[in-house]
Amino acid sequence: MITFEGVTKRYPDGTVALDDVSLECPTGRITVFVGTSGGGKTTALRTINRMVEPTAGRVLIDGGDVRERRPAELRRGIGYVIQHAGLFPHRTIEDNIATVPYLLRWNKKKARAAAHELMERVGLDPSMARRYPFQLSGGQQQRVGVARALAADPPIMLMDEPFSAVDPVVRAELQDEFLRLQAELHKTIVFVTHDIDEAIKLGDRVAVFQTGGRLVQVDAPEDLLAHPADEFVAGFIGQNRGIRTLGFAETGGLRLSDDAVFAGSADAADAAGLDWVLVVDADRRPLGWARPADETGPLAEARLVPVGATFRAGADSVRVALDAAVLSPAGLAVGVDETGAVVGTAGGADLLAVPTHGLAGRAAADSAAAEPADTPERADAPVKGGAGD
Ligand SMILES: Nc1ncnc2c1ncn2[C@@H]1O[C@H](COP(=O)(O)OP(=O)(O)OP(=O)(O)O)[C@@H](O)[C@H]1O
Known about the structure:
Layout: E1 2-10, E2 16-25, E3 30-35, H1 41-48, E4 56-61, E5 64-65, H2 71-76, E6 78-82, H3 93-97, H4 99-103, H5 108-121, H6 138-150, E7 156-160, H7 168-185, E8 188-192, H8 196-202, E9 205-210, E10 214-219, H9 221-226, H10 231-237, H11 241-245, E11 261-263, E12 277-280, E13 286-290, E14 311-312, H12 318-327, E15 332-336, E16 342-347, H13 348-352, H14 362-369
Parallel strand pairs: 3-8, 3-9, 6-7, 7-8, 11-12, 14-15
Antiparallel strand pairs: 1-2, 1-4, 4-5, 9-10, 12-13, 15-16
Keywords: ATP-binding, Nucleotide-binding, Transport
Family: Belongs to the ABC transporter superfamily.
GO molecular function, one term: ATP hydrolysis activity
């Protein structure tokens, strides 16, 4: 646990970069610092590894004041990733990654072997080990930056806008891989960004800083969206906060309907009266949408409109399901299980009926995560026109 106790940083010119900040960053979790430019996020991050010394207050790691540790020794237990990766241009990728192991006097073979393993972990082909940073794309360089920070397996990682300098597609990939990695490694991470979407996607807790170094709110992202502390936070979160909140609503309790699901062997006449039906194969894999009124004979031979987006029932959020419903010609979201088989469909109204008020905090979600995944019941009725029909 990293604890800020009344931390203030006032520079000699009178600038208050941090104003009496108290906050806890729990062990094994991602705490994101977000807020306006100049809000003190970077300054706060740097007080943890003593790159900045507070004017007042203290920063503790597991109860111990960081000022009682020598900076060099302290920093060996703290990985640090910055924007543009900050790689040494004249060192190969493997030697960049092995920077801290070399400082720790590991032998070269062991350090390089560890570097290669880390390259795979962060999604880099180890054949790039002998390249130099300029021979890598921006996204690849950021991966090297993350690998370098992880090299000595530090329990804490400080990340200052690590994914800001790459395009949105690469950025989303880096974020997804970062979350996958964290699910394995459980580091204590403090992550600075000015992007509220990134904060909400990555943070277990999100701390919002306002100009003048004032910490305005610290909460789980779903609570931040549901209950912004003041106008500033509400404005910072933006106008889509209702839709974003649906990103935390679960599809696990949703009762899906089988009414519009038909086997390919079913006859169009069996579906008379329905505008659109979802045609599935023998394994309940979706084949496409058909309009029974325009067809005669087996639905497998109908003109099918591709299903496009689906949602993983019980795993994806209501936001993902709603997106699938909006994009579907039938206005119905198709729920599938982990094998891709159709579990049932849900309309926009069904999805919006999922309770979103008072969304459970991460702590509650965590205890649930220890239980088997909550998969919605498959609708009872057998597929119409299915085998044996
Ligand atoms: N060495 C310094 N001397 C004087 N003022 C400083 C110094 N370093 C930072 N500041 C000021 O402290 C305030 C907080 O800066 P900081 O870099 O922590 O903000 P930030 O929230 O990380 O901003 P950004 O998102 O723009 O990076 C700013 O007003 C900045 O100008």
